Sequence to fold (251 residues):
Amino acid sequence: MSGHSKWSTIKRAKGITDAKRGALFTKVAREISVAARQGGGDPDANYRLRLAVEKARAVNMPSDNIKRTIDKATGGGDGDQFEEIVYEGYGPGGIAILVEAATDNRNRTAAEVRSMFTKAGGQLAGSGAVAWQFEPRGLIAVMRDGSVDADEVALAAIDAGAEDVDTESDDTIEIYTSPGDLEAVRKALEGAGVPVDSAENTMVAKQTVVLDSNKARQALRLVDLLEDLDDVQRVTANFDIPEGVFAEVAG
Fold:
């Protein structure tokens, strides 16, 4: 899982420094809206909505905004109707990329995603072209600091039902679960006093592709362009990059 760990660390670091607050709120609001429409407006009874609300709070989205988004999504036909779509494509070096979007205009989003792939040396592909290279997993992140013992966290996670724990990163411990066990493992960790930074269901590459420095920079540019699109919720790719480029980008 080391490739995914490094990839997640890059995205987390860049997200903190680069993301525009308004654009981030828009993406989180769409995630809340989709979850509320599908499973109802009660976070206690709608696990996906609860995860979305927690993500919104983590980026300091005001409570009034969260409530208004839920009310609008569950209040009938007047709210925006967002459709979830997954686009698949190839990036520099032949890497596989999944682009998860929530859109109210399928044609607009498809055109924008295709344009970004073309602009950065990639290619949009058909459904099923690369999805087989990824698998759904629950992902829990625990930030490493002086109060966190990685071995104790790993032991607590495995005891709670986690499938794998990655402690290779210097700043984050990543805990992987089956999608259905994510909530139970998260609760068990918090009950054991482990400070959970985030918990989400995501897609994880089964294997990673190591890129040279040039291709790695091109791939990161493509991911940045895709993530800057308002309709795009998440981008997942199966590449790993050299330590030197990683230090340059993450630092």
Summary: DSSP finds nine helices and ten strands in the chain.
